[in-house]
Request: fold
Amino acid sequence: SDLLEPGWELTHDYGIKELLCAYLCENGFSLNGKKRFPEARKCFEKSLQIDSNYFQARKGMAISYHNEAMSDNSKDNSDKVINLLEKAYEYENDDTISSSLASLYNQKGLKILDALPDNTSAFRCDPAIECFEKGLKLLRADLEITQISSDLAYMEEDNFNDMFEGLADGLPKTMLRNLWIARRFKRRLKGY
Reply:
């Protein structure tokens, strides 16, 4: 690797660049398997310097960030896990990563709401609302989350149930309900 790397900038032969990218990615996946995530990412980064769209390197970066986020030493720090999954999502926005990240946004939003006293100021609900909105955007790009979010503040429970009746039970529906609760709580705090 050390002998090949300086030469990639000098060649215009795509075949050589392809071989070097493949070699770097193979090393990266090997290090990833040994849970040496930062070292693995260095290999993938080098590959991406050679070819910024190299599929295996982009996938390797996402897997490395995702695996580190799911490793035992990260699980106790939800902000670190969210940060790692956001980085994974930058490289590959697959369902596993987006679902994991949305679930963490939901958990973070709930923690924020649970920690708020009843007589708090309304703006302190905003971080929870942002968490729910971010998660929903990952799960349901087809929904106009910003518009729905503002409408939820004025929606009664029967209207909420009618509006989302066709939506299957699961994380998106749970997050919509949590967003609705946060919006209603904020509205109540404002005195409306």
About this structure: The first helix runs from residue 5 to 8. The chain is about 70% helix and 0% strand. The mean pLDDT is 88. Residues 66 and 167 are 28 Å apart (CA to CA).
